[in-house]
Amino acid sequence: MMIKYLRLFNLTVWAAALTIVFGSCEEQLNIAEFADDYSEYESELRIEAVLDAVEPANSIVRVDWTMLVTDTSIFNGRDDDGDWNPETDDTGKDGTITDEGELGPPPDEGEGNGRPDPGEPHVDEYDEILPQLHDSTLTVALIDPATEQVLIEFAWQSRADSFQFVPDSHGEMGIGADAELVETVYYGAYRPETVYVDTIAYYKEYEFRLTKQDGPEITGVTTPLPPVVYDLNGSPDGNTLIADTLLINTEGIPRFRWYTDEALVDWVVVDRIFSPDSIVRITSHPAGPIGQDNEGNWVHEDIMGLYSPGLYRWTVIVPSRAYGAYIYSNLPMRDEQLSNLRDENDCVVLGIAGSASPAIQYVRVPE
Asked: Is 285:270 a contact under the CB 8 Å cutoff?
């Protein structure tokens, strides 16, 4: 589960126009007008290889080809998989339905015409675009570079993982989102087929090795960091551990804490559990330490008074240093200090070789 919450390939680039704002003025520019500026552009591989240092069998390697937003062979403006709905998706090119009697501009081009048009939901959507970008032809392995021993062999899966979203015309994910509007998209990637190692050592180097038939070998080294340690001993806030669930003390300022060895920015995913078959994502966000304790551990915390009474599942993920920089930095992916992937000619390859260490804790907020 870890990677899909950390960094999904950002493919929102299929917007039909680019909005440039100068003060209070806006001008709509057709991206196709800039096609000649990139006429010599060549697609290249973009890789995100992540080792799950706690459960190696959950590791994943995503390999996709880059693209231009002007590529009409990919963005063809059609509903290729037949899931466009005239009752909810006939929004026109702005992607939103104009309410009757609403003050403001009239319905835009294509709205209410009874057919799918560019810019509308389910036209050039994720599950139409992603399969065209995947590369399933590589040989992928995790290696111990000190011994050249193969630790994990990966195999391509067309439905390797998934993510959820709410179409733009229907709002956003989060608390209060209508579960019936949430859509799930599956994407292809490489998953472990054979795992030859029982445990992954922290602070030790591991190497991803990707080989394309009749092409260059690509390598990237990652050094896993240990997962967080949750505060379950009842201090300083009087929380109580019952079986595997931490009961939060709601007197005073209810808090939940965890510790890391270093001053890391980790990633926090919180799910509310209504029943085994009803689990709702509440939040997914980065979190940094608030300081150090007397033993030198870095302290992280969440204020539990923000959460309604109920049962929650906390997943805190510690990324490796390079992967953390890749997630949180705005530097370009080709930056030599950011991407640690190289081909056999020592040329930078887009993306990252990283690792992540998730830790799960169940937490209950009482009435």
From this structure: no
Contact (Cβ atoms closer than 8 angstroms) between residue 210 and residue 139: yes
User: 119: which 2 tokens?
Assistant: 């810019």
Burial of 152 (0-12, 13-18, 19+ CB in 10 A): buried
By three-state DSSP, how is residue 114 classified? coil
d(CA 182, CA 170): 9
Nearest to 306 by CA among 288, 282, 329: 282
Beta strand 350-365 with 245-247 is parallel
Query: Longest C-alpha distance within the chain, in Å?
Result: 71
Whole-angstrom distance, CA of residue 84 vs CA of residue 97: 14
CA 268 to chain centre: 12
Alpha-carbon distance of 261 to 296, in angstroms, equals 8
CA geometry: angle at 1 spanning 121 and 301, to 5°? 105
pLDDT tens for the chain, residues 1 to 367 = 333 334 333 332 222 222 233 333 444 455 555 556 656 678 888 899 999 999 999 999 999 988 777 777 777 778 777 778 787 777 887 667 776 655 555 677 778 787 888 877 887 777 777 888 899 999 999 999 999 999 999 999 999 988 777 665 444 444 444 455 667 888 999 999 999 999 999 999 999 999 988 777 999 999 999 999 999 987 678 899 999 999 999 988 899 999 998 888 899 999 999 999 888 888 888 889 999 999 999 999 999 988 999 999 999 999 999 888 877 776 555 666 667 999 988 888 988 999 999 999 999 999 8
What residue ranges do the domains of the chain occupy? 80-123, 229-318
pTM: 0.78
Task: Provide the pairing of β-strand 341-343 with 350-365.
Answer: unpaired
